Amino acid sequence: MRFERRHAVLLLTVAAWNVFSFGNFARNLWAAYEGGEDRATGYWVAHTILIVVNFAIAAVLGSLGWKAWRATRS
User: Shortest CA distance to 52 belongs to which of 34, 68, 29?
Assistant: First the structure.
């Protein structure tokens, strides 16, 4: 598949959205933890793993998007 500029924009946008939304989620999760919210340990572990995995996905998509962006420079 050949990447075009619009593919690069899409990948970079999705990566930025993941960072924004899961960064906000991480901040809210931390505030709940610091506030003493009573949850099972599995809740904190599962959501932390979810956040880490989504940041990794954002890094992969951002890397692909950046490479596509540089490859399509005119």
Answer: 29
Q: Position of tokens 């999705």? A: 14
Exposed e or buried b per residue across 24-43, where buried means at least 16 C-beta atoms within 10 angstroms of its C-beta: eebeebeeeeeeeeeeeeee
Identify whether the C-beta of residue 14 lies closer than 8 Å to the C-beta of residue 54.
no
Helix (H) or strand (E) holding 25: helix 5-34
Q: What is the DSSP letter of 74?
A: -
Give this prediction's pTM.
0.88
Could you identify the residue written with the tokens 């940041």? 55
pLDDT at 18: 97
